[in-house]
Amino acid sequence: MDSDQFREFGKAMVDYIADYLDNIRNRKVLPSVNPGYLQPTIPQEAPQTGENWKSIMEDIERVIMPGVTHWHSPNFHAYCPTANSYPGIVGEMLSAGIGCVGFSWMSSPACTELEVAMMNWLGKLIGLPEEFLNCSNGSGGGIIQGSASESTFIALLTAKERMVRNIKNVHPQLDEGLIKAKLVAYTSDQANSSVEKAGMLGSMPMRLLPTDQNGCLRKETLEEAISNDKNAGLIPCYVVATLGTTGTCAFDNLEELGPVCRREKLWLHIDAAYAGSAFVCPEYRYLMRGVEYADSFDFNPHKWMMVNSDCSAMWVRNSRHIVEAFNVDRIYLHHEHEGVAPDYRHWQISLGRRFRALKLWFVLRSYGVEGIQKHIRSQIELARYFEKLVKDDSRFEFACSSMGLVCFRMKAGDRLTQTLVDKLTQRKNIYVIPCYFQGNYVVRFVVCSRLTEIRDIDYGWSEICEVASEILNGYIPGKPNGELVSLVTVSNMSKRRENCIEH
Ligand SMILES: Cc1ncc(COP(=O)(O)O)c(C=O)c1O
Fold first, then answer.
1. Which of 417, 433, 501 is CA-nearest to residue 467?
2. SS3 at position 458
3. How far is CA 168 from CA 5, 116, 160, 234, in A?
4. For residue 2, how many other CB atoms are within 10 A of its CB?
5. Cβ neighbours around 45 below 10 Å, total
6. Which of 128, 229, 232, 500 has the most neighbouring CB atoms within 10 Å?
7. 309 CA closest ligand 1 atom index
């Protein structure tokens, strides 16, 4: 492909994307394909000779779109948002066009320097304490990682290394392997699955501690777990607190957990993957009170801040620890300006890294602080509007709400609420998923798409009401849960439990 063809292909693709997003309401949010649908639509082998870009374009609607779940549809209300914006997409284009690998300052100075600057902009934007920023006098700093999962894992490995060093400083005779085998980590039973996975990958048992009735991990629970482990001869090392849990968007109490971590010298990592974007609005910053106790903090602009994936913003209070844990050097990686700016390869798992700061720069400049605040506030307002619709309808019971998420159930009980989710999924007009709240099966409705408007909330609600009416027509009051059992086969029920969002 020469540059003239690239111009044509690229422009056609920009048009295609703009049309796709302009008309996304016309598509069902969920696809109707079965596993294995794609294979028969393409040849078994790669083509022997190159094809014209137009024939590739033609296959997008035929091969790809039938199997796409439209995450940016205003009718997508499952999981949590994944960001998408035009400046973000254009930033990705330029990043691909430049195609540099920024593992050190020297390997592409603009890649490192823009990232340093953007992490300062972003940190200030969400009100992070000064000591986490690259521009502070201390050794704090920020980096863009690929995911919140990666950040949690990186923080765990760093905590492990720091703990081993600290212990070896006092007891040099102790075997490193024996120390590592005794380390333990803590989080709540509401934390994202990636937190448990980090413990698994890092060979550090992750205790999933029970939460209070609002889904928050409290001080007494953490203290008791630490004390039990210490009594058993183990070494508490790492704590992950969540600001905005995946199931119900609950916030752990940092003002309680932070001092415990300080006192016990445990690394405190904060996972604010989804809700962290809300701290752009000063009125939500009370939810991060106690953040000054953290050793590391992460949130995903690629979830709720309109920066296309991947862009997970991670800050550490003391970058020396992360560099000590991740530094493996080779002569070919050295350069004459070392130490002046971060060599980000020492802060991450992979060696190579993309120029991800470009899309962040484009988004922050295109929307400005006010534009991003408006986006967050309007999505929260839409959720509150939905909440009122739930509360005003006597067939439903409101469970909880936080940020852009509302959880509710049918008063008729768990079984009928499960049926509601199943039927909505079969109809494919809106997409919601369930979770458990205080032992009950509830529907999670999240305002996800940047394109969602009040008319879409009304549409989603009318869809829910229509299906609920249909279900309640076959329901005999006074016999909650029992009457529709025949609609729900045992195998479907167990499948649903597996699909139920971790909680
Ligand atoms: C609280 C929380 N942490 C972590 C994650 C995982 O994020 P990522 O896909 O960036 O690893 C999620 C995803 O929904 C989440 O809600």
1. 417
2. helix
3. 61, 33, 12, 16
4. 6
5. 6
6. 128
7. 10
Q: State in Å: Cα 147 to ligand 1 middle.
A: 7
Residue nearest to atom 16 of ligand 1 (CA): 246
At 58-113, the pLDDT tens digits run: 999 999 999 999 999 999 999 999 999 999 999 999 999 999 988 888 888 899 99
The tokens describing 119, both together, are 């992490």
Does the pTM of the predicted model rise above 0.85? yes
Q: How far is the CA of 303 from the centre of ligand 1 (A)?
A: 9
Q: Are 372 and 378 in contact, with CB atoms under 8 Å apart? A: no
Tell me how far the alpha carbon of residue 7 lies from the centroid of ligand 1, in angstroms: 36
**Sole residue written with tokens 């894992």:** 153
Which atom of ligand 1 lies at the shortest distance from residue 246's CA?
16
- The 10s digit of each residue's pLDDT in 30-56 is 999 999 999 999 999 999 999 999 999
Give the sign of the dihedral formed by CA 84, CA 388, CA 416, CA 487. Answer: negative
Task: Tell me the CATH class for 100-354.
Answer: alpha beta
Q: How many residues does the chain have?
A: 503
**CA-to-CA distance for 25 and 354, rounded, in angstroms?**
33
Residue type, 289: R
Q: Is 148 in the pocket of ligand 1 (CB under 6 A)?
A: yes
Ligand 1 geometric centre to CA of 481 (Å): 33
Q: Return the ligand 1 atom nearest residue 79 CA.
A: 14
Prior bond to 310 cis, omega within 30?
yes
- Whole-angstrom distance between the N-terminal and C-terminal Cα of the chain? 49
Q: Whose CA is nearest to atom 7 of ligand 1?
A: 148
183 Cβ inside 6 Å of ligand 1: no
Sort 175 into a burial class: Cβ within 10 Å, 0-12 / 13-18 / 19+.
exposed
The CA angle 327-344-145, to the nearest 5 degrees, is 110
Evaluate: CB of 191 within 6 angstroms of ligand 1: no
Nearest to residue 243, comparing CAs of 204, 192, 201? 192
Q: How far is the CA of 172 from the centre of ligand 1 (A)?
A: 38
Which position has the token pair 């969400």?
Answer: 126
Among 152, 154, 194, which is best to mutate for testing ligand 1, by the most ligand atoms less than 8 A from CB?
194
List pLDDT tens digits, range 436-492.
988 899 999 999 999 999 999 999 999 999 999 989 987 655 554 444 433 333 334
CA contacts within 13 A on the Cβ side of 56? 13
Ligand 1 contact, 80 CB (< 6 A): yes
Rounded CA gap, 264 and 295, in Å?
13
Residue 490 CA to ligand 1 center (angstroms) comes to: 31
Contacts of 108 (CB under 8 A, 6+ apart): 98, 100, 101, 102, 355
Per-domain residue ranges of the chain:
100-354
Is 333 a residue whose pLDDT tops 70? no
